[in-house]
Here is the input.
Amino acid sequence: MTPPTATSAAAGLLFVSGLEREAAILAGLGAIAICGDAPTLRAKLAQLEDLPLRLVVSFGICGGLDRSLRPGDLIIGTEVVSAGDSIGADEFVIRLLDRRLADARERAVLGRIAGVDAPVLSVEAKTRLRAATGAVAVDMESQIAGRFAADRGAPFAMLRAVSDPADRDLPSLVLKAVASDGRTNIAAVISGLVGSPNQLPGLIAAARDSGAAFRALSRCRRLPGLFLGLGRADL
Here is the structure.
């Protein structure tokens, strides 16, 4: 995670992620990148209440709900929906992100993202969530980032990459794979495999899929000026 500094605070660009690995992709951008579970993110965001914000971006991997999406596909969120709440992304930022990615020959799908409090593990649960929300993807951070941006009156954007597709179950051990600070909890996974070795194939598939998603996010990181000039023009 990139700690707040005078330079990053002046930039006013805030990235919100769930995983330390996601936040690490953004290191060196002159922005603030925070990660963690919901309580950790909310605590960190509370410490940034006085930061002038140019743009808040939900950035990282997500689960696919649209069955046409495959691992590594990029999603530009148009709004995040959760428990009857809906927070729209900034339309100007959506259009410009889409154009800049297209110019770099990176195809992105525009669509609604469902915000949830826990991973959606089964194909059945993904199907129900898709039907209930019309969302193309799901994550656990966009609703938090979006609410923070809305409360602050700051522009909001979502750029995610599909990890687990809609037609694949996730093993229950993924619930233990990430610590509250966003770090991978390898010890917990190994311990879980000892008692439930039948989950190993699912974990291998999930790792392969997430690898495709992280490669897509890393390509976005290398695109010069992807987030340059986005958000408030007066900061």
Remarks:
- The chain has one domain: 6-222.
- The beta strands are 13-17, 32-35, 55-64, 74-82, 85-88, 108-115, 137-139, 156-162.
- Confidence is low (pLDDT under 50) at residues 1-10.
